[in-house]
Amino acid sequence: MKFSDIVYILCMCRCNAIGCIMHWLSDSFKDLKKRNPCPGDTLDLTHGCGATVYKKTENGVLYKTFTPKNEQRITEVTDEGGKIWKANESETCLHIRSYYRNHEELLTICTHSPEGLEFLRFEKRDNLWVSIGKLKFMTKLAQMKETHGSIHEKDSFYQELLKEEKKLGVKLDILNINPYKTNVFDSEFRGVRSISCSPKTGFFRKIMEGKDFIWKAQPREICTLAYVYCWSGSPRLVAISTRINDNVVYRHFERAYLGWYEITEDAFCMAFEMMEDSYRFIHS
User: Tell me, what's a Pfam family for it (predicted)?
Assistant: First the structure.
């Protein structure tokens, strides 16, 4: 055998060995990617890797809250690999909350930067996440919660309940909420306490603060959901979802010196943001 043939055989063996090693590394990388689908500081909503996930069902809506694990810093949020949000140099993500019911999905991302906290809101349309405003998000979330409950399951049953308004209509006193008649979800952020109230059976016919009326139903009007917003321990704002026949109407109220007054959506949002701004000013 010639010397050149020996050199050729040795080169071929080395190339085959390198090829085998590269193939093994490629397979190992693919396997690692399957086991760890979220690279680095990316949170994928589908897999939830890199985050602690808390699940809860309230009013028929599935909530998922994602918070970073240990010291991990979330700088990108994706859904099955599709990018939803990516941080700039000074941003980081504190937590993510998703809302799901009947193929409808909403999402909030709480971010932090030197300018402070910011909430980003999204709606899923045709498998794509689309950014939406605060008022639209609040309306859609209220609709998502409002569709849950016996009075909306069947129109015929809904009509039967309307015939028994006196029997099934309940009073909501925001100073003394009855846990036996009312589903309550209580949370607090930026000094604003939010209390979500929905009747366990029937619907609200009156909403009061002690002896003071906030809202009283008109003929054939019912309320299925109420939000109470408190500042410094006192109720300041109330938002309710009402229905007259098949029409849903959202109404807003503010506590003034002489009692409760109905206000517009814009005035409600402005008053709500003023409460948050007061908290930021006090703690700045």
Answer: FAINT
The verdict on residue 19 lying in a domain is no
SS3 (DSSP) at 205: strand
- Indicate if 136 and 197 belong to the same structural domain: no
Return all residues near 92 (Cβ < 8 A) that are at least 6 apart.
73, 74, 75, 111, 112, 113
Residues 268 and 172 in one domain: yes
Q: Which residue has the tokens 């938002």?
A: 239
- Whether 275 and 253 map to the same domain: the answer is yes
> Is the separation of the CB atoms in 195 and 185 below 8 Å?
yes
Which DSSP helix (H) or strand (E) runs through 220? none
For residue 195, give its domain range. 154-282
What the block records as the tokens of 159 is 């009509």
The reply to whether 52 and 170 lie within a common domain is no
Do the domain assignments include residue 105?
Answer: yes
Is 180 in the same domain as 248?
Answer: yes
Q: What is the largest CA-CA distance in the chain?
A: 109
- Predicted structure pTM score: 0.44
Give start and end residues of each alpha helix (H) in the chain.
3-35, 134-146, 155-163, 165-168, 265-282
**258 and 159 together in one domain:** yes
**Residue 167: CA atoms inside 13 Å, Cβ hemisphere, count?**
5
Cα 161 to Cα 165, 193, 202, 208, 245: the distances in Å are 6, 32, 7, 22, 12
- Is 239 buried (19+), middle (13-18) or exposed (0-12) by CB count in 10 A? buried
> pLDDT tens across 55-101, in order?
888 778 888 888 777 656 788 899 887 889 998 887 778 778 899 98
User: How far apart, in whole angstroms, are the C-alpha atoms of residue 271 and residue 230?
Assistant: 12
